[in-house]
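Translate structure to sequence.
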């Protein structure tokens, strides 16, 4: 009798195990495709840069919760968005919650529930029924509505798992001297295509990362959460190497908002060659083509017969394409007392030269027209009082070294 009971027990256990394994193997996958109810808002807000995942809640045929706020990474293919696939046993289900979030967990978009004030904005309000078939992928297309300006109850939710986060738009202008071997390209100012590696910008608010997004050449708009005491910005190149890091209090960062008239925060990546440091004792050019010069400042001395004399000074001299002047004038900006504010320099320098202790400097340059500026404690000095050529202009001819004298003079004395 005991033997029969034992056999029955073993068979029962084996049967249960077989059925369990069989049910586990009888599974399919679910994948979400997205449709935004206001594509214009998506593009203008730039939120497509920040959406990283979907939070989904799914119930079974009898109302039991199968997945609660399941985190599904989001991928973009051109203008299409799809989520990572979710494996589910074969059966009938209902999608009861669907929200799109960013890296910081803030909600940007959500699908409204049937009977809610915003239900009319989507063609299929929640709950949405669907079926999972054996070894098949069910593609479920859902529509989402931007949450900005609405409360959770407008969507038919008791609450969102993450409270609404008030944000501001940060405008960053990025330019670099592109390294060789890049895998992408963008049109340059002369119409030619130049390499453009994929760089990224990370923003930390009080030690917590709130943004990790591509940093494109030109103007970038980013949605940043408010409420932090300080923000640290870190830019990295295509190899993950950090080339920019700066920390700002909130009030300083707000000066670079996306509002009209506010200057962007300028980030640039200098050339790998760095600064051309002029050897000590050099007083004559040793380059075959480029610019050779002498940098001085006026000094007052009661023993001098003239009003003032000049003494050498060591400041870095920045060289830009002279087309920068056209860009500045097009924005109705102008130097203030012969100094360029840094936010006016909307491109990377072509080269930087550092004089020796006698004020002499040299820098090899390709033939062309360049704007030279001197970086001082007051800003970037603009040589506006030169009479021999256009202000701040130096022309490099093929096979020649152009010599210039730069006197850093307080322009207010001429006003």
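Result:
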């Amino acid at each position: 009798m005991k033997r029969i009971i034992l056999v029955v027990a073993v068979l029962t256990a084996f049967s249960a195990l077989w059925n369990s394994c069989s049910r586990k193997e009888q599974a399919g996958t679910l994948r979400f495709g997205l449709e935004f109810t206001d594509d214009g808002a998506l593009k203008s807000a730039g939120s497509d840069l920040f959406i990283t995942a979907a939070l989904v809640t799914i119930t079974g045929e009898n109302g039991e919760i199968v997945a609660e706020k399941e985190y599904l990474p989001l991928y973009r293919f051109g203008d299409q968005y799809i989520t990572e696939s979710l494996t589910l046993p074969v059966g009938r289900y209902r999608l009861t919650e669907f929200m799109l979030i960013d890296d910081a967990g803030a909600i940007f978009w959500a699908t409204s529930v049937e009977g809610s004030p915003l239900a009319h904005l989507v063609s299929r309000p929640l709950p949405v029924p669907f079926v999972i078939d054996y070894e098949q992928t069910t593609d479920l297309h859902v529509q989402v509505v931007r949450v900005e300006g609405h409360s959770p109850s407008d969507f038919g939710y008791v609450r969102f798992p993450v409270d609404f986060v008030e944000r501001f738009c940060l405008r960053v202008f990025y330019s670099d001297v592109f390294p060789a071997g890049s895998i992408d390209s963008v049109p340059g100012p002369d119409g030619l295509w130049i390499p453009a590696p994929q760089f990224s910008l990370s923003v930390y608010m009080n030690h917590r990362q709130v943004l990790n997004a591509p940093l494109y050449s030109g103007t970038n708009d980013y949605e940043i959460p408010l409420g932090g005491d300080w923000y640290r910005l870190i830019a990295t190149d295509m190899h993950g190497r950090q080339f920019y890091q700066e920390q700002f209090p909130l009030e300083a960062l707000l000066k670079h908002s996306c509002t009209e008239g506010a200057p962007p925060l300028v980030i640039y990546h200098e050339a790998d060659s760095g600064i051309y440091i002029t050897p000590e004792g050099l007083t004559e050019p040793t380059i075959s083509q480029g610019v050779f010069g002498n940098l001085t400042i006026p000094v007052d001395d009661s023993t001098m017969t003239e009003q003032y004399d000049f003494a050498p000074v060591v400041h870095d001299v920045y060289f830009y394409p002279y087309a920068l002047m056209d860009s500045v004038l097009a924005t109705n900006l102008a130097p203030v007392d012969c100094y360029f504010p840094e936010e006016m320099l909307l491109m990377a320098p072509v080269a930087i030269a550092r004089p020796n202790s006698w004020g002499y400097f040299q820098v090899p340059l390709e033939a062309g027209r360049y704007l030279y500026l001197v970086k001082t404690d007051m800003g970037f000095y603009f040589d506006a009082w030169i009479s021999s050529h256009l202000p701040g202009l130096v022309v490099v001819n093929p096979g020649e070294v152009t010599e210039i004298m730069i006197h850093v003079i307080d322009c207010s004395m001429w006003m």
